[in-house]
Design brief:
The chain is α+β, with helices and mostly antiparallel strands and 174 residues long. The chain contains 5 helices and 4 strands. It has a single domain, classed as Double Stranded RNA Binding Domain.
Length: 174
C-alpha cells in the first residue's frame, strides 16, 4: 500500500496539484454563496422580495418554498421587489398496462415568473422554471393520492430552488 501511494504522490504530482490550485484561484472563480462581500449583498436583495402567487393549494406550496429560499426570516417590511409567479401543471402517463391504464405518471410543474421593481413597476427580470417528478399508480387509491401529492410537493420545492438560483445569478451580475 505504501509503495502504491509513493508512486502516486511523487514530487511531480504534488507540484502539479499546487500549480493547478493556483491557476483555479487566479481565474476569478467565486462561489455564489461565498463569505466575501458580494454574497451578503445577494442575500439582502433576495430578502427584499415579496412573493405574489394565486391562493391555490399548489401555489401555496411554491410560495412556502420560495419564502424558505428567498427570505427565511419572513416577508420584508418594505419590499424593493415583487415576484409574480404563474404555474402550469402537466400530468403525463408514461407507464401503461395491457388494457392501456396508466401505471406511472410524470408530474411537470412549469413556472413563469417575473421580478418587478416596486418603485417604478418595471420588469427587471423574467424567466421560466420547470420541475418534473414521477409517481406510480397502484391498487390503493390512498397510496396513489399520497404519491401524487408527494410528487407535487417535490416539484414545488425544486421550482422554488430554481427560481432562487436564477434570481441569485441575476443579482450577482450587478
Amino acid at each position: 500500500m505504501r509503495s502504491l501511494l509513493g508512486r502516486f504522490w511523487n514530487h511531480k504530482s504534488v507540484a502539479a496539484m499546487a500549480a493547478l490550485s493556483f491557476l483555479v484561484t487566479a481565474c476569478g472563480f467565486q462561489p455564489l454563496y461565498s463569505q466575501n462581500g458580494a454574497a451578503p449583498a445577494v442575500q439582502a436583495e433576495l430578502a427584499a422580495i415579496i412573493i405574489k402567487v394565486k391562493p391555490d393549494r399548489l401555489e401555496r406550496l411554491v410560495y412556502s418554498s420560495l419564502v424558505d429560499e428567498l427570505s427565511p426570516l419572513g416577508a420584508p417590511a418594505s419590499p424593493a421587489y415583487r415576484l409574480e409567479v404563474t404555474l402550469e401543471e402537466i400530468r403525463t402517463g408514461v407507464g401503461f398496462e395491457a388494457d392501456d391504464s396508466a401505471t406511472r405518471f410524470n408530474f411537470q410543474l412549469l413556472g413563469t415568473w417575473r421580478l418587478i421593481d416596486q418603485e417604478n413597476q418595471e420588469v427587471l427580470f423574467q424567466s421560466t422554471s420547470r420541475s418534473i417528478a414521477a409517481y406510480n399508480v397502484v391498487t390503493s387509491q390512498f397510496a396513489t393520492l399520497t404519491a401524487e401529492k408527494d410528487a407535487e410537493a417535490r416539484t414545488a420545492v425544486d421550482l422554488a430552488r430554481d427560481i432562487q438560483l436564477q434570481l441569485s445569478l441575476h443579482f450577482r451580475q450587478f
